[in-house]
Amino acid sequence: MRQQQTEILWNQPATPGYFRMGITGEGYEAAKPGQFVTLRFPDDRGPLLRRPFSIHRRLRGKEVSADSEGADTLYRVHGIELLYRVVGPFTRRLSEQRAGAVLDLLGPLGNWFGLPEGADRIFLAAGGIGIAPLFFYGRYALMHGRSPDDLTLFVGGRTEADLLCLEEFSEMGIEVIPATEDGGAGRKGLVTKPLEERIETDRPDLICACGPIPMLRAVSNLARNAEIPCRVSVETIMACGIGACLGCAVETDSKADAYAHVCKDGPVFDGTDLKIMNP
Q1: From CA 228, how far away is CA 53, in angstroms rounded?
Q2: For 138-180, how does the pLDDT look when each residue is reduced to its tens digit (9 = 90+)?
């Protein structure tokens, strides 16, 4: 973990309301899926508290092409890419930043989903912006010996605009099963329904999930009932990112009055460890 000044390489719309941002950063070569960073603006104008963002992709020192100010630009950098949704003043201001702008970066932070021995069949379940760390996980799994046939992505959103990275997963050869609440793309309804049906016919060895708490709770319950290991990445406010401010405490299910801190003990937890994952 290190704090550093980072430069924005690109900051481009992905779908309406969502952006991809590439930033420089040293020390991310060993970052793993599920880990996150926190950002703040280096001036005094932005919100005081840092904002957390899952690592979406590593820039591994290769030449990376991106559109900057209307022209193709070629970068050879170390760093990361973030995928974020505009939901408040911080991300709104972030979406207005151009290539060359400077941010204060802290990371990599937290733990990761893991890729255990014997987990040959893996389901990924994403809700909206929860796709960000699972895209990183898909690439990581393929780089570490898993076949595209070993992975299946279940991705849900309210509308088609909330479904991200479908083409990239398909290009990796990973099966994609989308669902939207309004029926605009994929299956109509919640993504947990096709996940439940597939579990009955094609039981996985591991489920990794990231998304809203109600979705994570439903996925955890499906996994618990089927006795399938499940790892969930919990989204919450994490001001310090190192467990000092205690603002991200969540009650565990291991013993009475026990708490974990999402930034330090997570953000990835066993689906049975937290009380908020219980029905």
Answers
A1: 28
A2: 999 999 999 999 999 999 999 999 999 999 999 999 999 999 9
- Phi and psi angles of residue 134, each rounded to the nearest 5 degrees, phi first: -75, -25
CATH topology of domain 122-235+246-277: Rossmann fold (3.40.50)
Per-residue CA distances from 241 to 46, 127, 231 (Å): 18, 23, 20
Tell me how far apart the alpha carbons of residues 192 and 111 are, in angstroms, rounded to a whole number.
25
Report the SS3 class of residue 275: helix
Residue 44 token pair: 């005094």
The alpha-helical segments, DSSP class H, found in the chain are 89-95, 131-143, 166-171, 192-201, 213-226, 262-265
- The DSSP symbol for 112 reads -
- The total of other beta-carbon atoms located within 10 Å of residue 197's CB is 12
User: Chain-wide mean pLDDT for the chain?
Assistant: 89
What phi and psi, each to the nearest 5 degrees, are found at residue 65?
-95, 135
d(CA 265, CA 144): 25
Domain with CATH 3.40.50.80 in the chain: 122-235+246-277
For the domain made up of 2-109, give the CATH fold.
Elongation Factor Tu (Ef-tu); domain 3 (2.40.30)
Which has more confidence, 116 or 277?
116
Judge contact between 232 and 277, C-beta under 8 A: yes
Q: Which residues contact 120 (CB under 8 A, 6 or more apart)?
A: 146, 150, 205
**What is the C-alpha separation between 221 and 279, in angstroms, rounded?**
7
pLDDT digits (tens, 9 = 90+) for 15-25: 999 999 999 99
What's the token pair of residue 82? 């973030």
Structure tokens at 18: 């969502």
